[in-house]
C-alpha cells in the first residue's frame, strides 16, 4: 500500500532482513538458555509461543540501541523484551478468545486459558529477574514504567471494547501503551546499558515510541486488507472482537453522514456478514489509506528522533539499520 509520505532507507529490504536475522540469532540462543524452569509444563507452553515465529524485533532493537550508544550488549538481557511480548500475547489471546496466533493454533486452545495465563505470569517474572542483573537503577525503573503502562493500555483497550465513539486521541493512547511502549523500552534500556547520557536515552525512547505506533497502525490497516496467510492470524476480526481502530474511526468522522451512520450500524452488529460490509465501506472511503498515511508520519518522526542524536550515534552500522526499520515497518505485509 503506497503512502504519500516517502521515507528514505539506507538499506534495501534484503539487507534489512539479513541484518535483523544475524542479530536475532544470538537473541534466540539467549532465549533458549534463559527460559529454563523446573516445571516442564512451563517450558513447553513458553516454547510453544516464543519459538512459533516472530522477527525478534524487540530484542534486536535492544541490541542495536546499545551498540548505537557505544556499548557492547549482552544478548542475555535481550530476552527481557521477548519474554514480555510473549506474556502479553498469551494473555491477549485469552481475553480475545483467539483461535490462531502466528499461523497456528493459539496456545490457549492447546493448553487451556488457566495454564497460559499462569505461564504468562512466569514470563513477566523472568523478565524482571534478568533485568535485576544490571547494576543501574535506571534499567529496572525503565522496565517497571514500561510494564505499568502496558497494563494500563490493556485495561484501556478492554474498557473501550465496542466503544463506537472512541476518538483518535484515546485510540492512539491505547496503541502507544499496548504496543509502542515495549519497543521504546527496548531502545531506552539498550542505551541505559551502554551508559548513555539522558539525551541519548530520550531520543532512542522517542524513536521506539514512534516506530511502535507506526507498527500497530500497519497492523490495524492489514486487518482490513491483509490475508490470513500473510498475517499469521485471522484478518477482519477487529470488529468481531469489538476493537475500534483508526481505519474505521477515520471513515466514521470524515464520510458523508449517511455513510457514517450506516457504518456505525454495521460495526455495532454481531453479524459477520454486516462486519464484512463495514469492512468494505472502510476500504472504499479511505480508512486504510488514512491509516497508512498516519503510519508514514509516525515512521518519519521515528527517523527524525534518530537523526537528533547527531554525532552521539557511535555505531554507523547500527544507525543504518535503525534508520531503515521505520521504512521496513511501513512496507511490511505481515
Offer a concise description of the structure.
The chain is an all-alpha fold.
Question: What do these coordinates show?
Answer:
- This protein has 334 residues and is mainly α.
- It is built from 15 helices and 2 strands.
- The protein has helices spanning 13-34, 40-50, 57-68, 75-96, 107-111, 113-131, 137-159, 168-193, 198-225, 228-231, 246-254, 257-267, 272-284, 287-307, 316-330, and strands spanning 100-101, 104-105.
- Strands 1-2 form a two-stranded antiparallel ribbon.
- A hairpin with a 2-residue loop joins β1 (100-101) and β2.
- The radius of gyration is 20 Å and the shape is globular.
- It starts with 12 loop residues before the first helix and ends with a helix.
- The mean pLDDT is 92.
Report, as a whole number of angstroms, the end-to-end distance. Answer: 13 Å
Report the principal-axis shape.
globular
Rg value: 20 Å
- Write the element-wise H/E pattern from the N-terminal end onward: HHHHEEHHHHHHHHHHH
**Percent range for helical residues?**
over 70%
Structural class: mainly alpha
The number of helices is 15
Overall residue-averaged pLDDT value: 92
Uncertain segments are none
Percent range for β-strand residues: under 5%
Strand order of the largest sheet: 1-2
Main beta sheet: strand number and arrangement?
A: 2 strands, antiparallel
The overall strand count is 2
Amino acid at each position: 500500500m503506497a503512502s504519500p509520505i516517502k521515507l528514505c532507507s539506507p538499506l534495501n529490504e534484503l539487507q534489512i532482513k539479513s541484518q535483523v536475522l544475524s542479530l536475532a540469532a544470538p537473541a534466540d540462543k539467549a532465549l533458549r538458555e534463559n527460559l529454563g524452569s523446573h516445571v516442564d509444563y512451563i517450558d513447553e507452553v513458553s516454547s510453544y509461543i516464543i519459538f512459533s515465529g516472530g522477527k525478534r524485533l524487540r530484542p534486536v532493537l535492544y541490541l542495536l540501541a546499545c551498540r548505537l550508544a557505544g556499548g557492547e550488549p549482552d544478548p542475555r538481557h535481550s530476552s527481557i523484551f521477548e519474554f514480555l511480548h510473549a506474556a502479553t500475547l498469551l494473555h491477549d489471546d485469552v481475553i480475545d478468545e483467539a483461535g490462531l496466533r502466528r499461523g497456528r493454533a493459539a496456545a490457549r486452545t492447546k493448553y487451556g486459558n488457566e495454564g497460559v495465563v499462569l505461564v504468562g505470569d512466569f514470563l513477566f517474572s523472568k523478565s524482571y529477574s534478568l533485568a535485576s542483573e544490571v547494576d543501574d537503577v535506571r534499567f529496572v525503573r525503565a522496565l517497571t514504567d514500561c510494564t505499568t503502562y502496558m497494563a494500563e493500555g490493556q485495561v484501556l483497550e478492554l474498557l473501550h471494547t465496542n466503544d463506537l465513539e472512541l476518538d483518535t486521541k484515546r485510540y492512539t493512547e491505547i496503541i502507544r501503551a499496548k504496543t509502542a511502549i515495549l519497543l521504546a523500552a527496548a531502545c531506552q534500556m539498550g542505551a541505559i546499558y551502554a551508559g548513555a547520557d539522558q539525551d541519548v536515552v530520550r531520543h532512542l525512547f522517542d524513536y521506539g515510541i514512534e516506530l511502535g505506533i507506526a507498527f500497530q497502525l500497519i497492523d490495524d490497516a492489514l486487518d482490513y486488507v491483509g490475508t490470513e496467510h500473510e498475517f499469521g492470524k485471522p484478518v477482519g476480526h477487529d470488529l468481531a472482537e469489538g476493537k475500534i481502530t483508526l481505519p474505521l474511526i477515520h471513515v466514521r468522522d470524515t464520510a458523508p453522514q449517511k455513510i457514517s451512520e450506516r457504518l456505525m450500524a454495521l460495526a455495532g452488529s454481531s453479524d459477520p456478514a454486516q462486519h464484512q460490509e463495514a469492512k468494505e465501506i472502510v476500504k472504499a472511503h479511505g480508512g486504510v489509506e488514512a491509516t497508512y498515511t498516519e503510519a508514514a508520519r509516525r515512521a518519519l518522526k521515528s527517523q527524525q528522533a534518530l537523526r537528533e542524536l547527531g554525532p552521539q550515534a557511535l555505531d554507523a552500522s547500527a544507525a543504518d539499520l535503525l534508520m531503515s526499520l521505520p521504512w521496513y515497518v511501513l512496507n511490511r505485509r505481515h
